[in-house]
Amino acid sequence: QVQLQESGPGLVKPSQTLSLTCTVTGPSITTDYFYWSWIRQTPGKGLEWMGAIAYSGNTDYNPTFESRTSISRDTSKNQFTLQLSSVTPEDSAVYYCNRGSGWYMFDYWGQGTQVTVSS
């Protein structure tokens, strides 16, 4: 059974970099054919896939966010991290981490964490 838990600051100032961590309990994030995504939900745009890191360490990003987004991992802690730079109030959202069995597949979700961008 896999469990995912997001953590990070609930409030970020405009122009700063948002950094969120997903801690995975259960399988290793390097287990073959697992893909680890970040998805956010806003009232106006619904669910938006931001990007993912594969079991191999390869990454893929939504072109909408690619210039501002970086996803990395710490295999020793079984964690993966989202960094979103130059945030604006429009980046305020609930951010979820997720595990899928392929690119763009979303099987298991964390509970989500609210991030507000405000001065």
Plain-language structure description:
By secondary structure, the chain is mainly beta. The chain has strands at residues 3-7, 11-12, 18-25, 35-42, 46-54, 59-61, 69-74, 79-84, 93-100, 108-109, 113-117. The termini are far apart. The model has no long low-confidence stretch (mean pLDDT 96).
Question: In terms of topology, how is this protein built?
Answer:
Elements: E1 3-7, E2 11-12, E3 18-25, E4 35-42, E5 46-54, E6 59-61, E7 69-74, E8 79-84, E9 93-100, E10 108-109, E11 113-117
Parallel strand pairs: 2-11
Antiparallel strand pairs: 1-3, 3-8, 4-5, 4-9, 5-6, 7-8, 9-10, 9-11
Could you give a short description of this structure?
The protein has 119 residues and is an all-beta fold. The chain contains no helices and eleven strands. The protein has strands spanning 3-7, 11-12, 18-25, 35-42, 46-54, 59-61, 69-74, 79-84, 93-100, 108-109, 113-117.
Helix content class: under 10%
Note the overall shape.
globular
Q: Main sheet, how many strands, which sense, barrel? A: 7 strands, mixed
Helical segment count: 0
Order of helices and strands: EEEEEEEEEEE
Overall radius of gyration: 13 Å
Estimated share of beta-strand residues? over 45%
Main structural class: mainly beta
Low-confidence stretches: none
Measured between the Cα atoms of the first and last residue, the distance is 40 Å
Number of E-state strands: 11
What is the arithmetic mean of pLDDT? 96
